């Protein structure tokens, strides 16, 4: 990996920032970790893929650290956040990236409750726990910080949305039971946290279906 000195000064826009990335050992998480480091950030990769995570951190050098983390386990998430603060002194960016698409099925009739619960546990509960514990250390610090949620499986998950679920979403939209923006920001009080959720894929499907 090239050093920060090889990049123009404008490229080091994350200099002095510390990021924690769940699911950072591969896919979008890995690419983001590498990009963050190129822009001057320190990165903690939290993943269940120990060998891959250690390998990525080996490539990134002293700017990166790996910790084993199952995002469905609150204790693991808490330890990952604490590790970031202990290792690099602060936490400025929390990227809830860990996610799965679940087992592909041709019909909702063939889907399994256990598989659905696993997807929710990783994609939804994992992001909630990441947000909760990142906020735990970010709010008292009273400095700029950001919490983001995304996943390399986001598009696949949206594309595989069972027709019954999509129909219910369309009906809810027509009855004004849904809102156009969902933000965790309102739960953070007056703190300096920016919370962004990657919701465009599903939102586009609902918008297109409702208008069609």
Automatic annotation (TrEMBL):
Record-linked InterPro entries: NAD(P)-bd_dom_sf (IPR036291), SDR_fam (IPR002347)
Alphabetically ordered keywords of this record: Oxidoreductase
GO molecular-function term, one example from the UniProt record: oxidoreductase activity
Annotated Pfam families: adh_short
Record flagged with keyword Oxidoreductase: yes
UniProt keyword Oxidoreductase present: yes
Family assignment from sequence similarity: Belongs to the short-chain dehydrogenases/reductases (SDR) family.
Name of this protein: Uncharacterized protein
Source organism (scientific name): Asparagus officinalis (Garden asparagus)
């Amino acid at each position: 990996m090239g050093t920060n000195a090889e990049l123009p000064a404008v490229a080091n826009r994350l200099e002095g920032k510390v990021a924690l990335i769940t699911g950072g050992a591969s896919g979008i998480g890995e690419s983001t970790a590498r990009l963050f480091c190129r822009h001057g950030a320190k990165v903690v990769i939290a993943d269940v893929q120990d060998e891959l995570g250690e390998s990525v951190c080996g490539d990134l050098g002293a700017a990166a650290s790996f910790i084993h983390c199952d995002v469905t386990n609150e204790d693991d998430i808490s330890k990952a956040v604490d590790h970031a603060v202990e290792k690099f002194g602060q936490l400025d960016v929390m990227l809830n990236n860990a996610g799965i698409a679940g087992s592909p099925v041709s019909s909702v009739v063939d889907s399994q409750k256990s598989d659905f619960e696993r997807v929710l546990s990783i994609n939804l509960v994992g992001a909630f726990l990441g947000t909760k514990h990142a906020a735990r250390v970010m709010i008292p610090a009273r400095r700029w910080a950001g919490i983001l949620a995304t996943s390399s499986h986001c598009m696949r998950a949206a594309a595989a949305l069972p027709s019954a679920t999509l129909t219910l979403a369309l009906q809810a939209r027509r009855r004004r039971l849904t809102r156009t923006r969902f933000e965790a920001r309102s739960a953070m009080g007056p703190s300096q946290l920016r919370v962004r959720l990657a919701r465009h894929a599903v939102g586009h499907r609902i918008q297109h279906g409702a208008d069609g």
